[in-house]
Specification:
The protein is mainly β. The protein has a single domain (about 5-30, about 35-230), classed as Jelly Rolls. The protein has one helix and 14 strands; from the N terminus they run E-E-E-E-E-E-E-E-E-E-E-E-H-E-E. The protein has one helix at about 180-190, and strands at about 5-10, 35-40, 45-50, 60, 70-75, 80-85, 95-105, 120-130, 135-140, 150-155, 160-170, 175-180, 200-210, 220-230. The strands form two sheets. Strands 1, 2, 4, 5, 7, 12 and 14 form a seven-stranded antiparallel β-sheet that branches. The protein starts with a strand and ends with a strand.
């Protein structure tokens, strides 16, 4: 299941495969002896993924003490995606991933499980690659979609992708933290839950906020991306 927590409301200051049903996420162990080593991702390390982005860069980094990436989509912008490529030396050692996000403005009627309404206040992509095939899980904060639902599945020889609605609707302006075990997530979504299935290298993490299908504003903030290493 998704392990998500929320924090008190704070004042606001804001991919697609990155090429680089029910939610079923791995459990994070609580025992200190099992805690992974943590490797934070610097906010400035996220860069525009040009192959999947239009000309409008609507992302900015807000400095400390409330450092975060602010995404502020306004129509008629073309959708843009930020991405972070995990260093090759770390890819086989990734044990967990967590991040914090908050929706500020929800795209009107945005529902990733409805054709023509697939906009999200906030998106985090996690991507793997095996051979020529890219595997992507798209975790979203939806405007009106059903929390916990998995939908918009894509399967072909080159792409496998599922969308998972982690949070939905209001309250906006509230930080929430999400934690996943990428290996468990891959097996649950792409290997039928087989606990012994091999998992390819995790390649990257992406973020997005969009409102191009509903032609409405969409605003969110992202921070505290941390990779846990075995």
């Amino acid at each position: 299941m998704v392990e998500a927590t929320s924090s008190p409301i704070v004042k606001a200051s804001c991919a697609i495969a990155l090429c680089f049903a029910a939610v079923s996420l791995g459990v994070i162990r609580d025992a200190a002896a099992d805690a992974p080593r943590e490797s934070p991702i610097a906010l400035h390390a996220f860069k525009i993924v040009e192959k999947h982005s239009g000309p409008d860069n609507y992302y900015s980094v807000t400095p400390s003490p409330d450092a975060h990436i602010h995404a502020e989509y306004r129509p008629p912008f073309k959708t843009a995606v930020l991405g972070y490529e995990i260093p090759e030396a770390q890819r086989r050692s990734v044990a967990s991933l967590r991040w914090s996000w908050r929706a500020m403005v929800l795209p009107k009627g945005g529902n990733e499980c409805t054709d023509g309404k697939g906009d999200s206040a906030a998106v985090v992509y996690v991507t793997w690659k095996r051979g020529l095939r890219w595997y992507t899980l798209k975790y979203v904060w939806s405007a009106v979609g059903t929390k916990g639902r998995t939908c918009d599945s894509k399967r072909n020889p080159f792409v496998a992708q599922d969308t998972i609605i982690v949070d939905t609707g209001e309250p906006v302006g509230e930080w929430r933290t999400v934690r996943i075990v990428p290996d468990d997530e891959f097996r649950n979504h792409f290997e039928g839950g087989d606990p012994h299935a091999s998992v390819p290298d995790i390649v990257g993490v992406g973020i997005m906020s969009d409102g191009d299908q509903t032609k409405s504003q969409s605003v969110a903030d992202f921070r505290d991306f941390v990779i846990g290493l075995r």
